[in-house]
Amino acid sequence: MKSTLAAIVLAATAVMAAAQTTPVGLWRNVDDKTGEAKAEIRIGEANGALIGRIEKSLKKDAKPDAICDECSDDRKGKPITGLDIIRGGKKAEGKDVWEGGKILDPENGKEYRASFTPIDGGKKLEVRGYLGPFWRTQTWNRVQ
């Protein structure tokens, strides 16, 4: 009986650990310059591709009714809270990285090619945005 219970606990732990090495979940991003939390972003998966929305703005000066004035596509004029900022991105074969997606910076309305790599056992997420041959990487922290 004890060995069966131990096997179940180990299997459940392994499944939970595997689930954490994915970008799917709730993440907090941090301002590169100030170190302050900016937003919580919920990443999910639909048809094998990532989707991500701003669930909550954490900026001190955030307006609850803020809209994406700078966006130039279907997101223009949409509320920042609930805004889709991640579209696409599929798991690369044999690697723990999701590539081929796009990420929107609602502050300037620009969309960048993006990759998403869980690190530190899935507790953090490296989010890399690309513009031509240049890139910038942010590290997001898992909330859930």
From TrEMBL:
Pfam hit, one: DUF2147
Gene3D superfamilies xref list: 2.40.128.520
InterPro entries given in the database record: DUF2147
Signal peptide residue numbers: 1-17
Keyword terms, alphabetized: Signal
DUF2147 domain segment(s): 25-142
Protein name: DUF2147 domain-containing protein
Protein source organism: Variovorax beijingensis
Taxonomic lineage of the native organism: Bacteria, Pseudomonadati, Pseudomonadota, Betaproteobacteria, Burkholderiales
